[in-house]
Amino acid sequence: MKLRKILQTIPLLISVIANANIGVAKADDEIDADISQPKLDHVHLPSDIGGKMFYHSAGDPQGQRVIFIHGTPGSKGAWKDYLAEVPSGFEYISVDRPGFGDSSPQRAVPIMRQVEIMEQFLTESSTGEKPIIVGHSYGGTMVAIMAALYQDKLGGAVILAGSVSPELDNPRSIQKVGQYPPFKYLLPRNLRNANDEVIALEQEAKQFPAMWPDIKMPVVVLQGEKDPLVSVKNVDFMKEKMINAKLDLKVLPGINHFLPWNSKDHVDERIRTAVEYSRKGAK
Fold it and tell me: How many helices and strands, by DSSP H and E, does the chain display?
């Protein structure tokens, strides 16, 4: 009888764990299936990870590069609408982060290791224009870290509903349940890796605030006022900690977490703003 009750609760727990993660996996998978125009390519991951990292590209390969980084879970397909409308003179790239989408490995990869892997995409255009990086949710966290570590290689950084404060972002209790058998092995790979990433980030994130004063470049931010997943208080935290950055902050009243989908015009404007800063040489 006890075993039967346990088995009966497994589907419910899996559903709750899935919803506890920043749940765009289904939407991303559906979007991925519709992509036809962008070019699919890959780079080889370091030997300690193994396999390949896939990405889509569209636009002018010689133009200024704009790199899109999805959240957790997610995939390169999150940015389909952006790659379908690349402005003249730009190359848009959307990546499958390691452990997500088509990219290896099967396991989760720590955020800091992912940041190191992303450095290889930071190449200048044929006319010497540095790339712009755009990240949503935990992709926005990665953008902030990259702005601290690689700002000499960057033209601009755009953070969309990005979590930058460890105090404002903690795993839910149900996510920790997903760390243990049998639930861990019953979760689909993207949700299992998302869960592992979120749990690991609880410790990783403690080192991030010390990095924020190192950012000395323009950081363009878009945040939804009614975001239930990443608190709007992150905006005030950026003001407090990113004291040497040129912050350009915008909060959208009444808008939730899913900015790439529900606020594309605002996201496009934020990207244009980052490009303007890069071409003015603002620091």
Answer: 11, 8
Burial 58-94 (b: 16+ CB within 10 A, else e): bbbeebbbbbbbbbbbbbbbbbbebbeebeeebbbbb
Q: Are 134 and 68 in contact (CB under 8 A)?
A: yes
Comparing CA positions, the residue from 105, 124, 113, 126 lying closest to residue 54 is: 105
Q: Write down the H helix ranges in 79-188.
A: 80-83, 111-118, 138-149, 173-177, 183-186
- Using DSSP's 3-state secondary structure scheme, residue 93 falls into strand
Yes or no: domain 2-280 corresponds to CATH 3.40.50.1820: yes
What confidence tens digit (pLDDT) does each residue in 13-58 have?
Answer: 444 444 445 444 434 443 343 444 799 999 999 999 999 999 999 9
* Residue ranges covered by each domain of the chain: 2-280
Q: Helix, strand, or coil here: 34?
A: helix
Write out the two tokens for 74. 């997610």
Over residues 108-128, the pLDDT tens digits come to 999 999 999 999 999 999 999
Contact 208, 144 (CB under 8 A): yes
DSSP 8-class letter at 166? G
